[in-house]
Amino acid sequence: MQTVPETPATARAPGSDPPTDAALLAGTRTDFGTVFDRHAPAIYRYCARRVGTEAVDDAVSDTFTIAYERRGRFDPAHSSALPWLYGIATNVLRRYRATEARHRKLIRLHGEPAADGTAERAVARADADTAVRALAGELDRISRRQRDVLYLFAAGLTYADIATALDIPIGTVMSRLNRARTRLRAALRERGITTLEGPA
Q: Residue ranges of the HTH luxR-type domain (predicted)?
């Protein structure tokens, strides 16, 4: 059982650098709350992109519950816990396969909901929405492993971060991503779509 320090890592001297994720994960419950505050928005966006609003809260909650239970396993050699958290979230999302499939079907039929309710943003998304629908259908045809890499790459992770998240070699990340992108580009070309650019 991991020993929890009595003094939070966040209780630092004025002017000192913020504690690293590794220090926070080795600290108190309050410290873990800081890790949550730092990274929950990114994990929420990632889960929402995959399962929609139906299960995103549960998926994020499960991710951080597991992270807290396994915080002693975090490798302090890594400067950020975010790739590790993405890996936990990816494993958690496997419990929601049916929900994820329903979400892709909804996107395929109706397009992806706008991030806000403004008419201007909805209009700006119109062209990209066609591409999103096409991709949603094609995502059902690539392997789960390729989807995992693709979604993590879309979330902004580097090859190295994805390798850390999924505990696979960088070469495997690159090959899975290449196969997925090749398949998706071909599907878009068949529909006469040459860009995925949306609103700024």
A: 156-183
Render the chain in DSSP notation, one character per residue.
Answer: -PPPPSS-TT---TTSPPPPHHHHHTS-HHHHHHHHHHHHHHHHHHHHHHHGGGTHHHHHHHHHHHHHHTGGG--TTSS-SHHHHHHHHHHHHGGGHHHHHHHHHHHHHH-PPPSS--HHHHHHTHHHHHHHHHHHHHHTTS-HHHHHHHHHHHTT--HHHHHHHHT--HHHHHHHHHHHHHHHHHHHHHTT--------
Q: CATH second-level architecture of 126-195?
A: Orthogonal Bundle (1.10)
Give per-residue pLDDT as tens, 68-126: 999 999 999 998 999 999 999 999 999 998 888 888 787 766 656 544 444 444 444 44
Whole-angstrom distance, CA of residue 15 vs CA of residue 17: 7
pLDDT above 50 for 37: yes
Q: Would you kindly state where each structural domain of the chain is located, as residue ranges?
A: 20-124, 126-195
Q: How many CB atoms sit inside 10 A of residue 43's CB? A: 23
Q: What is residue 94's three-state secondary structure?
A: helix
